[in-house]
Amino acid sequence: MKLTFRPYTLQLKEQFTLATSSRNTTPAILVEIEQDGVIGYGEASLPPYLKDTQESVSRFLSNLNLQQFCYSHTLDEVLDHLLKESRDDSAAKAAVDIALHDLYGKQHNVALHKLWNCNLSAIPPTSYTIGIASEEDIRRKTRDADQFKLLKVKLGRDTDKMIINTIRSVTDKPLCVDVNQGWTDKHHALDMLQWCHEQGVVFAEQPMPAEMKNEIAWLTERSPIPVIADEAFQRLSDLDEMAGIYSGINIKLMKCEGLGQALKIIQEARKKSMKILLGCMTETSCAISAASQISSLVDWTDLDGALLISNDCFDGAKLSDGRIVPPDRPGIGVLPI
Amino acid sequence: MKLTFRPYTLQLKEQFTLATSSRNTTPAILVEIEQDGVIGYGEASLPPYLKDTQESVSRFLSNLNLQQFCYSHTLDEVLDHLLKESRDDSAAKAAVDIALHDLYGKQHNVALHKLWNCNLSAIPPTSYTIGIASEEDIRRKTRDADQFKLLKVKLGRDTDKMIINTIRSVTDKPLCVDVNQGWTDKHHALDMLQWCHEQGVVFAEQPMPAEMKNEIAWLTERSPIPVIADEAFQRLSDLDEMAGIYSGINIKLMKCEGLGQALKIIQEARKKSMKILLGCMTETSCAISAASQISSLVDWTDLDGALLISNDCFDGAKLSDGRIVPPDRPGIGVLPI
User: Would the N or C end of chain B have less CB density within 10 A of its end CB?
Assistant: First the structure.
């Protein structure tokens, strides 16, 4: 197996505003793993709030020796080697994991969602993010989102109620909210979640800072809607702790080290009766198509990442009836453009 | 692909007594599917309370044409053809599904549990059934079950409390109860479930007749322990109805048409926040090893079926630390003895 990679800068169609920052691009690294002429594609997306950077990913990939693996090694063995390579580097590992799974699917002529017995008709609609903006812009964005069945709102500023009221002046579609740790008073947070519930919000991500564990547990117990861990949840080893604090988790391939670990997390979270959101960063259709392979296994998806960039370099998963549906091709199903 | 089959009679080590019948043998059909010298093994176990018989399975298998399938067909396509062959014949389909999955795993040199990213360390302990018997026999059987961490008791007669009290005089291990539709008064059933809960019973299977849907829904709402559908639940198409009546379901490969459908049922049941028990009939280590491939995905297992027969003709999944653990071999991992 031969691994190559190159940096790529994702151009955002619109400026991306969270509670804490704004930006116009997302750095990424594109990965290829080749074996006897078959190529598996992978991607690391590296928004600034992740520990991984283009530099750290490049360093990790340069040190990773896949040449030692041949057909006598199972995918399982290669993934095991990958995960043990370092303690961190979750996005770099996700990129390699995606490329290895893509290669495996192509070598065995099977789409991953078929390999894993996933039922495509059970894929939940993706949410589509209406960013923090002026009332007029919010109305326009809401109207423009007519292809989507679930709208996501970034809260955590003093404009929270204005944003939701403005959206509600245009549509009665279900909403979800991502507070990005923006609320710090648990009583205010509970008031807001109750108000959100009355406005047709179906779940809330990371309402308070991840380190305020006791307050979030208090909030989850009282909240009328599920409280989902995002910043607080990275990977499988975090799951046990989450169960006592949150109703569910947001799994993102870039946080959790790839598809193999994501599947394990889903299995364990279900045993703990936890809700599951499958999310993404801004990503090309490469990483989004990878995520779409397992999207029928979760309660909600937030896989609009490739729709937010103007320079997608893969043809892959497509929006269909409000859902991001994987291509009917082997592996993750992408074709480079 | 070439399919062959033969009848086989499973000899039970001890007479098997349910609320409604007793027996010493279970009819079965053993299946082989061969492609270029590689053989996949499957099994249909046919206890008398299933619709399928050795005759109906033989008829189904004789009519099934797998010769039309070659390497250019995906496993998915063959399974699809299998399921559409008839409306019923769930055990016959399970036998073919198991053999096809075994063949696939061997052809790709991968154990199915690895293909499906299952975490073997998450396999729950199997229950071991203490049959309806005299007090002395129950004490002996309970003491003999020292390798097991969860004991299952068949209730539904006038001896219910005696049985549990007798077991409790020997051990404080967790118990589960299978009433096999034996209670018909919902108030009595609730009293019993509350009493069972106090005795350390962790779930109850089919406390009342499957057709008493309103009464079971009433019971489930009030029960201190999960109420699991067994006789009421056969396959994927039954799942929607179960969600409003029971806390969870008992999935058995022989009922649900095999591994492919079992995986789909698990995925859908989890979205409905339902509990899952993975059960079995009396079966050889062939069908038990197949079930063990997915056992890490469920809350409880009841996979003692091969331990109850004296003429097991496969080496396969083994009891280890109270759990039925799949072999570390490709496919379902069995070797004919």
Answer: C
Give start and end residues of each alpha helix (H) in B283-328.
285-292
Give the tens place of pLDDT for each residue, B160-202.
Answer: 999 999 999 999 999 999 999 999 999 999 999 999 999 999 9
Q: What is the pLDDT of residue A70?
A: 81
Nearest CA to B42 among B260, B263, B276? B260
Pairing of strands A314-315, A335-336: antiparallel
Model confidence at B210: pLDDT above 80: yes
Per-residue pLDDT, B18: 59
Cα separation, A282 vs A272, whole angstroms: 29
- At residue A261, φ and ψ (nearest 5 deg) are -70, -35
Residue range A38-85, pLDDT digits in tens: 999 999 999 988 899 999 999 999 999 898 888 778 898 999 999 999
- Do B267 and A110 lie within an 8 Å CB cutoff? no
Report how far apart, in Å, the C-alpha atoms of B138 and of each of A178, A222, B12, B153, B162 are. 56, 46, 18, 10, 10
Q: Which of B75, B114, B263 sits opposite A74 (nearest CB)?
A: B114
| pLDDT tier, B19 (very low <50, low <70, confident <90, very high otherwise) | low
Pair of tokens at residue A135: 């009332």
Residue A19 pLDDT exceeds 60: no
- Whether the CB of B274 is below 8 Å from some CB of chain A: the reply is no
- H helices of chain B, in order, are 54-63, 75-84, 90-107, 112-115, 135-144, 160-168, 186-198, 213-222, 239-243, 253-256, 259-271, 285-292
Query: In this complex, do A117 and B263 lie within 8 Å of one another by their Cβ atoms?
Result: yes
Cβ proximity of B298 and B266 under 8 Å = yes
Helix, strand or coil for residue B30? Answer: strand
User: What is the interface pTM, i.e. ipTM, of the complex?
Assistant: 0.77
Q: Which residue has the tokens 């919902």?
A: B186
In this structure, the dihedral spanned by the alpha carbons of residues A140, A145, A149 and A155, taken in order and rounded to 10 degrees, is -60
Structural contact between residues A192 and A158, judged by C-beta atoms closer than 8 angstroms = no
Q: A63-70: list long-range contacts, CB under 8 Å, 24+ apart.
A: A64/A3, A64/A96, A66/A1, A66/A2, A66/A3, A66/A33, A66/A96, A67/A1, A67/A2, A69/A1, A70/A1
- For residue A14, pLDDT over 90 is answered with no
Tell me what pLDDT residue A157 has: 86
> What mean pLDDT do residues A317-332 have?
97
Nearest to A271 among B115, B271, B299 (CB): B299
Amino acid at B157: R
Type of residue numbered A145: A
Q: Would an 8 Å CB–CB cutoff place A32 in contact with chain B?
A: no
Amino acid at B220: T
CB contact, 8 Å: A73 with chain B? no
State the smallest CA–CA distance between residue B29 and chain A in angstroms: 26
Q: Note the pTM of the prediction, 2 decimals.
A: 0.87
Q: What are the C-alpha distances in Å from B157 to residues B17, B133, B137, B160, B281?
A: 11, 11, 17, 6, 21
8 A C-beta contact, residue A303 and residue A280? yes
Neighbours of B58 (CB within 10 A): 16
Which residues are B250's β-sheet partners? Answer: B277
* Pairwise CA distance, residues B87 & A154, whole Å: 49
Tokens representing A225? 């809607």
Q: Determine the residue type at A274.
A: M
